[in-house]
Structures are given as C-alpha cells and as structure tokens.
C-alpha cells in the first residue's frame, strides 16, 4: 500500500544544505503497525511529512495505493490527505477556541459531508476515544492526553486507510500515553494501517514492526511477533 | 461507505469566518472604522449635493414656470453701460407690442421695472427691491397673496399709490406677525398704501422674492423713479416644450421692433429658466464630484486598512492555515474563507457607514434648511462598493494564505 524507493530530501538554507533523508526505501502493507524510531534530528518527521503528502521529496518515488504522489497538484494532494490519511501531531494542532466536536468535524467539512452526518460521526468518534462527556470543551479546557484523543478522533472521522502519528505521546504524561497506545492497538486490530514516530522504546513496543533511522538513513527494520 | 453531498458547506465557512472576526473585536472594529468613515462621507456628500441641487431647483421653479426673462444688454447705449440689466433699451411699448403680437408660443408678458431703494414705515426703514408690475406679474411669477389684493388694472391706469409687500419686508418694517394692510409706507417722498402681502417662497440673497415691494408699473416709472424704460420683460411660455421656440420668436420680434437684422447686434438678452437651472446644476455637480472624490480617497484608505488587517491576520493564523490544508482544505476554500472575512468586514463597515451617512445628511438638511434627499441608488451603490472593496483588498491576503505550503505553515512558530 505504501512503497517508497530511493527517497531523498535535502533542505537548502542559504548556502547550507542539510540532507534530512538520503536514499530511503521500504514498503508498508495494509494493516501494519509500524514504529519509526531514531534520535532527534535523524529525519523521522521529514519522512512522515512525505508519507503524509504534506511535503515532496527532493528525489525518489513515493507510491500510495498504486499512485505516485510526488508530482500531483496541491489540490489533489489535499484531497489525498483528506480521504486517505489521518494525522496526529506531537503538538496536537487543534483549532484554538473551537469545541472538540467542531475540531473533529473539520476534515468532514473539507470532504463535503453534510452537516447532520458530520455531527453524528464526530460525536461517535469522540465517544470512541472516551471523550463523550467533553464534546463542547475547547482545547484550552482539556488535558494534553484529552487533546491528543480529540486529535485521534479527528484523524479517524474520514475513515482513512493510514494513520500517521508524529511522536503522539511526546507532550503527554505517561499514564495518558498508555491510553493513547491502547486506542492505537484497537485501531490496528480493526484494520487501520498505523505509522507512528517515537523515540521512546516502550512506546515503540506497542508496534508490530520497528524501522530505525539515523542521519537520514534506515539502519534497522525489525518485525515482532 | 457512501459519500453524500460533496459540496462545500458555505454556511460552515461563514460561521468560521464570523467567529474568527469575533476573536479580536477591537481590531475588527478599528479595521471597519475606515470603511464606516469612507462610506459615511460618500453618502453624506452625495445627498448633500442632491439636496442643494434640489433646493436650488425648487427656488428657481418657485419664481415661475416656463419663464423667459428679457433684459436690456446695453449694446446701443455705448461704452460703460454694457453691464447686464443696466441698459434702457427695453420699453413699455416693446412689452405692449409683444403682448399684442399674440405669438403662439407666448402665454403672458410681464413688463417690470425694479430698483433697490430706501423704504420707511413708522420708525423703521429698510433697503429693498421695489418692482413696478402689471397684474400679469402674479401669474407669471406664481406670486400668491396671504392677505389683501394684488396690483390691479385700475391701479395701473390711475397710477395708484398702492403697494404689495413680501413677508420679509413686512416683518422688517412692521415687525413679525403684524398686519400691515391699510398702513402707509414712504418711498422717495411718496406715501403708498399697503394693499396686500405675498406668500413666503423661502428665498435668500439679492433677488429674494420675500424681501420685495410690488407697486404699479406706472407708479414706479413716473411717480417714484422718473424712468421710461424697463429693467425686465418676463415672459411665460405656453409650455416647457416650446421654451426654445418662444425664446427665438421673442428674439426676432424684438430685433424687428428695434430695427436690427443681425442677432449679434441685439440690445437685449433673453435667458430661460432652463439656462439658470443648468448653470446651477453644473456648479453643484462639480462641487459634488469634488467632494465625492475626496470621500472616495477616504474609502481607498479604508480599503488599505482592511488589507493590512487581513495580512496581519494571515500571518497570525499561519499554523491554522497549515492545519486546515493538512486536513484537506483546497486552495479555493482557504481563499474563500479569507475573502469572506474581508467582505464581512467591509460590508459591515458599509452598512454602518450608510446609516451614519444618512443620519449626517438628515442633520445637515435640518441645519442648512435644505430638503432631505437620500437617493436609494446611492445607498445601494455604497453597499455594493464596500463589498467590492472587501473583494479587491481582501484578495491579495487571501491568495497569499491559500498558497502557503501546509508543511511550512505547520512548522511556523
Ligand atoms: N525546513 C527545514 N529546513 C532546513 N532543515 C530542516 C528543515 N526541517 C528539518 N530540517 C533538518 O533536517 C533534519 C531532520 O529533521 P526532522 O525530520 O525534523 O528530524 P526528527 O523528526 O527525526 O527529529 C534535521 O537536521 C533538521 O535540522
Ligand atoms: Mg520530529
């Protein structure tokens, strides 16, 4: 379902060139739960942005569901992100001053789903992540763990094939982090493909496959169980 | 799963725009203020122009309908007497002949002799316009009386020592709300009896019909001022449509009577009410355009203010825009959202400005004692213009926002 080959990303800032990724190739099949590990600055986020169609590689190819996504227009990429990918960010990235249920409805607004259906699905998704009693709370009124669960609910509402999470527990107390991981495991059990970036081994332990990156290169790819 | 709809929910976009504007109310209000002032002044100035035009029209119309005025132009009287109205070339005989000629386009002829003079009544005196008239004057100039009677034919033939007073003159000489009928006034050592008072027309300035005294033409010419010429022959044309024809007919008739063949040698000038109306309209029109231009500049400044605020907003909300794009918002949707915010700002400013402008023009009309005129097109135009300003000045920031790359925007600190 995901196939990247010889992927490179070079950032050019003035005269300085940073190779964030160099010659990365791998495949991820439907239903996998992959953790991408590596020290800070190793290129994990860069990789996730490319996988999420938020950024394009300097060279190499990325094929998602049989379609090469490196040369598509902005609007087509937007559509792919909207329909096929659910994002979970380290910093949650919820709209401030906007209720949980409205935040969760946002991807459905862009998918053109009508109001009533949006409302019903958003409520269902929030109940599924255990926030049925916090629907109308704004992000400022929620704990880090709760905000991340709102973000998870938001990533799920368009029923995407892939869920991309960049250090989803990085800003969360560890007790709440476990709850998040339980949700991820349950999602994986129901067939969602999950790609999760982390540098914490005990978080990576929840995944079925661990890819390790260092200095923009893959240095390890292990399957568990 | 079936995806229904697939269309953008503009109601949702609108409510998001409204709540974005509600976040920083003070800033929203200040941004709008520029448009309020711009639209407000445009409306106020346009209606000020329209009402002064209307008031001039009303005043000119009140002096008589389909009115042509013949004045001597002093062509034959030589050197310095060439000034308008200063000549002696029009005579009572000219007027009589014109009247008897029964020109088909001419309805009534009113020969007039007027001069400003000192008038005394009791202890008071005033300087006012004394006009010698015949009975036709009242009809030609639409003069109606609030009391008494107007100059009659027998007053004319008897050289009667009678006078009809304008309401302003009455209050100048006898005090306000007094009844001057039967009282005497003194003009140039002659005692005249007041026989009527005319209804106020609401004029001002030099040729104010309310500050006037009407006496029989014969009395004015022979008894008071010893002159045998006329200062004006006023002519009422049969209708508005034949004004030009009447003007020509009178012109040729008088040229023939004065034994002149070349119209450029004419010792009189004929102008019509239309000429005066047009000149007045031109003057007020130029004035209105000028003021409107100044108001338009303030509107432009308001628009730039909106653009500035939208650019600031865009920068502040870079992360939000990035997130929206990451979640699947297309360029056009981001553009729409930001444009909508700008248009809401300017439209709100336009509507408030319109109300302010109407209120100001109402107050102005009370203060200046002019008719209150607000033309619906100018109001609609103002609202349309403010929406267009929102689109024009909101377009650049909106396009900038829509072009942000989601990843750059998400990373933005
Ligand atoms: N926009 C950018 N411009 C320049 N260099 C960048 C940019 N984004 C990331 N980098 C660099 O690329 C490398 C990989 O970054 P990143 O993918 O964020 O690492 P990780 O997520 O593993 O910490 C780092 O050296 C980082 O400094
Ligand atoms: Mg990172």
Short note summarizing the structure:
Chain A: Keywords: ATP-binding, Nucleotide-binding, Transport. By secondary structure, chain A is α/β, with parallel strands linked by helices.
Through-space gap between termini of chain A: 21 Å
Largest beta sheet: strand ordering of chain A: 6-7-8-3-9-10
Work out the count of structural domains of chain A.
1
Task: Give the N-terminus to C-terminus distance of chain B in angstroms.
Answer: 38 Å
Q: What small molecules accompany the polymer chains?
A: adenosine-5'-diphosphate, magnesium ion
Q: What is the level 1 CATH name of chain A?
A: Alpha Beta
Largest beta sheet of chain B: what is the strand line-up? 2-3-8-5-7-6
List keywords for this structure.
heterodimer, A: 225 residues, alpha/beta, Rossmann fold, 6-stranded mixed sheet, 4-stranded antiparallel sheet, 7 helices, 10 strands, 29% strand, B: 413 residues, alpha+beta, 2 domains, 6-stranded mixed barrel, 13 helices, 55% helix, disordered N terminus, binds adenosine-5'-diphosphate, binds magnesium ion
């Amino acid at each position: 379902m995901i196939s990247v080959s010889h992927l490179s990303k070079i950032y050019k800032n003035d005269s300085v060139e940073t190779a964030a990724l160099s010659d990365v190739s791998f495949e991820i099949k439907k239903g996998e739960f992959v953790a991408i590990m590596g020290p800070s600055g190793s290129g994990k986020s860069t990789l996730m942005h490319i996988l999420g169609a938020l950024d394009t590689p300097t060279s190499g190819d990325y094929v998602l569901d049989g379609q090469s996504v490196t040369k598509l227009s902005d609007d087509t990429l937007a559509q792919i992100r909207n329909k096929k990918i659910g994002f979970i960010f380290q910093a949650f990235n919820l709209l401030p001053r906007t209720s949980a249920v409205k935040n969760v409805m946002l991807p459905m607004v862009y998918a053109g789903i009508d109001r009533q259906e949006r409302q019903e699905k958003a409520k269902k998704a929030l109940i599924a992540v255990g926030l049925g009693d916090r629907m109308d709370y704004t992000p400022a009124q929620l704990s880090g763990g709760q905000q991340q669960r709102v973000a998870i609910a938001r990533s799920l509402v368009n029923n995407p094939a892939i869920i991309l999470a960049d250090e989803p527990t990085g800003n969360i107390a560890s007790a709440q982090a476990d709850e998040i991981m339980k949700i991820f495991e349950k999602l994986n059990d129901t067939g969602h493909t999950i790609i999760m970036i982390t540098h914490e081994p005990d978080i990576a332990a929840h995944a079925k496959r661990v890819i390790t990156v260092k200095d923009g290169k893959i240095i390890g790819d292990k399957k568990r169980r | 799963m079936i995806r229904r709809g697939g269309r953008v929910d503009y109601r949702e976009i609108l409510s998001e725009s409204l709540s974005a504007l509600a976040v920083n109310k003070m800033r929203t209000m200040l941004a709008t203020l520029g448009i309020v002032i711009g639209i407000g002044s445009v409306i106020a100035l346009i209606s000020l122009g329209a009402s002064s035009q209307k008031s001039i029209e009303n005043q000119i119309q009140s002096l008589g309908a389909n009115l042509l005025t013949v004045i001597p132009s002093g062509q034959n009287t030589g050197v310095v007497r060439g000034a308008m109205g200063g000549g002696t070339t029009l005579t009572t005989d000219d007027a009589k002949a014109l009247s008897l000629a029964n020109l088909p386009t001419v309805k009534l002829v009113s020969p007039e002799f007027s001069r400003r003079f000192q008038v005394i009544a009791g202890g008071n005196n005033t300087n006012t316009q004394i006009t010698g008239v015949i009975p036709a004057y009242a009809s030609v100039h639409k003069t109606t009386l609030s009391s008494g009677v107007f100059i009659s034919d027998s007053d004319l033939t008897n050289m009667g020592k009678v006078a009809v007073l304008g309401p302003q003159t009455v209050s100048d000489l006898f005090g306000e709300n007094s009844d001057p009928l039967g009282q005497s006034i003194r003009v140039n050592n002659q005692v005249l009896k007041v026989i009527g008072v005319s209804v106020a027309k609401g004029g001002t300035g030099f040729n104010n019909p309310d500050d006037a005294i009407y006496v029989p033409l014969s009395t004015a010419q022979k008894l008071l001022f010893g002159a045998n010429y006329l200062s004006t022959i006023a002519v009422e044309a049969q209708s508005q449509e034949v004004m030009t024809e009447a003007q020509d007919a009178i012109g040729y008739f008088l040229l023939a009577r004065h034994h002149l063949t070349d119209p450029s040698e004419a010792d009189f000038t004929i102008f019509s009410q239309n000429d005066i109306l047009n000149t007045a309209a031109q003057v007020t029109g130029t004035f209105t355009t000028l003021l409107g231009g100044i108001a338009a500049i303030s509107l432009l400044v308001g628009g730039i203010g909106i653009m500035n605020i939208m650019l600031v907003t865009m920068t502040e909300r870079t992360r939000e825009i990035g997130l929206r794009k990451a979640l699947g918002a297309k360029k056009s949707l981001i553009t729409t959202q930001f444009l909508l915010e700008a248009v809401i700002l300017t439209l709100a400013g336009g509507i408030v400005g319109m109300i302010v402008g109407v209120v100001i023009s109402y107050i102005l009309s009370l203060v200046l004692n002019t008719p209150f005129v607000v033309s619906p097109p100018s109001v609609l135009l103002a609202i349309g213009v403010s929406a267009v300003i929102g689109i024009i000045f909101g377009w650049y920031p909106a396009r900038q926002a829509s072009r942000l790359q989601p990843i750059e925007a998400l990373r933005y600190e």
